Amino acid sequence: MSTSWPGDSLSGSAPPGPATFAARAGRKPWLTLPALTSSLLGIGGLIVLLLLWWLGTDVLASSQGFIRQFSPTTAIPELVTMLGQPDLLVHVLVSLRRVLIGLAFALLIGVPVGLAVGSYNRLNTATSPAFQFLRMISPLSWMPIAVMVFGVGDQPIYFMLAFAAVWPILLNTAEGVRRLQPSWLSLADSLAATRWETLWYVILPGVLGHVLTGLRLAVGIVWIVLVPCEMLGVSAGLGYFILDTRDRLAYSELMATVLMIGILGFLLDAGARMLYQAVTRSRTA
Amino acid sequence: MTALAQTISPASDRQVAVLEAAGVVLHYPGQLKPVVEAFDFELDAGETVSVLGPSGVGKSSLLRVLGGLQEPTDGTVTMNGKPLRGVPPRVSIAFQDASLLPWLSLEKNVAFGLNFKHQPHLTQEESKVRVDVAIREVGLTHARRYFPAQLSGGMAQRAALARCLARKPEILLLDEPFGALDEVTRTEMQHLLLKVVRDFHTAAILITHDIDEALLVSDRILLLGGTPARVIGEWRIDLPTPREDYIAELGAIRVEILSRLRGATLRRIN
């Protein structure tokens, strides 16, 4: 797909083209720093972030100020307390379930459509402008329509999350199909493979790396879209809880929830990345 | 397909042609001239034939037709008297690119396709034995759990050859499989091919542009030339293998092939 879209830089971690498998084996540009050094640097960056947060709230803000209530010294102990109680955990589980269901729908739609779009050039040309058009509509703008169509509750949220997540999966799957090595398909032909066998044993494993790259991008998007989605018309989930804490004037809980959203998003992304690495490791070892 | 597999006779009778092409024409739509024209050919059981010719002459296209990957525009290709429809189970094809699937270990690559619907049914035990034998034959037992990214070019081609052998081929079709290898590895692979053909009693067609390779491994050499490609020369080599001791005899044939090639080229230039 010639048009670029937000997050495209991440697809740099897509599986290397067939010709570069061997080249990659010897040289791993993203690992030029030793693993220990790079994780120490990463932790250092997080500590600086924490310090800035602390400076902006506890140190520089006036001691009677409103801002004080959002400081790390109140938010972090508050988060620890909240983790010991069922309330926050219930909202977390509700949110995670929505994310998983939204992603599942996005995969169910995005992978088959991506396979078709990647396989047929004309279909790609015909659908590309339409997809670019739809992709640029914020999923949240569907909210009123989604509620009218699906009713109040979880369904409109699933719809919006799937709508947000389907594009990176679809486009990456299509790209994966285009990058399949023609000789793999010749091989399948030479083994008298049926269409299904070719699909199942060659095409699907061949695009898996791209699908997972798309999934990782989708996880990031879904997690960002989730919170505002949950601020409308539902009574559970992290987005709802943010508004709930505001209404209860429980500002330390609010900040602790923001922190929690960040931590969970970080972990989700790390999980998606590990999944990608676990699947592709053997191929480039 | 299974019916075809059952009618295959043992390869003991060396005079029976296993593969026969008659009047084969291959003409891609939209191209001015056919790629191949008037190609008649018989491959005897257990025979190794090299198809030699300059790059781009249509050797690979011809091999695709002979293997059933591509239907000829005209003419017929038959295996044991039956017309080809798709690639028959006992025809194995190796490509210039080893075409190993990077997500499968070497042994899984070798086993790849054995359980496909159009292949003769094998029990798990039978498949395992086939794979073991094939991997041992090409000398990769130590590397069976490696992934393709960990294999050298020569090892990858050995693995591709093992994948062909696991299907107990009656005919082995090799499309310049050693073309991308260095000289030393290439020589090793040529000796391996001779051994494999002997051990598995298989017939083989080797596409190559390397005259010496053709001279060292084949019972018969076909020289393709011209546009559309035709057979412009044929040599039978009745020398035992390995042939490194017969340089003089092979040298004579080499000169003949070269002069025939030059003649064809000059005709084309004039």
Automatic annotation (TrEMBL), chain A:
Keyword Protease in annotation: no
Described function: Probably part of an ABC transporter complex. Probably responsible for the translocation of the substrate across the membrane.
The family this protein is said to belong to: Belongs to the binding-protein-dependent transport system permease family.
Alphabetical list of InterPro entries matching this protein: MetI-like, MetI-like_sf
TM spans (from-to): 30-55, 99-121, 133-151, 157-177, 198-215, 221-242, 254-276
Primary location: membrane
Gene3D superfamilies linked to this entry: MetI-like
PANTHER family: ALKANE SULFONATE ABC TRANSPORTER-RELATED, MEMBRANE SUBUNIT (PTHR30151), TAURINE TRANSPORT SYSTEM PERMEASE PROTEIN TAUC (PTHR30151:SF25)
Topology with respect to the bilayer: Multi-pass membrane protein
CC per GO annotation: plasma membrane
CDD domains, sorted: TM_PBP2
Domain ABC transmembrane type-1 span(s) in chain numbering: 92-272
One Gene Ontology term from the biological process aspect of the record: cellular response to sulfur starvation
Protein name as catalogued: ABC transporter permease
Superkingdom, natural source: Bacteria
Cellular localisation: Cell membrane
Alphabetized UniProt keyword annotations: Cell membrane, Membrane, Transmembrane, Transmembrane helix, Transport
Automatic annotation (TrEMBL), chain B:
CDD domains membership: ABC_NrtD_SsuB_transporters (cd03293)
GO terms, molecular function: ATP binding; ATP hydrolysis activity
Domain ABC transporter: 19-251
UniProt-listed SMART domains: AAA (SM00382)
Keywords: ATP-binding, Nucleotide-binding, Transport
A Pfam family reported for this protein in Swiss-Prot or TrEMBL: ABC_tran
Known function: Involved in beta-(1-->2)glucan export. Transmembrane domains (TMD) form a pore in the inner membrane and the ATP-binding domain (NBD) is responsible for energy generation.
Family note: Belongs to the ABC transporter superfamily.
Record-given protein name: ABC transporter ATP-binding protein
Lineage: Bacteria, Pseudomonadati, Pseudomonadota, Alphaproteobacteria, Hyphomicrobiales
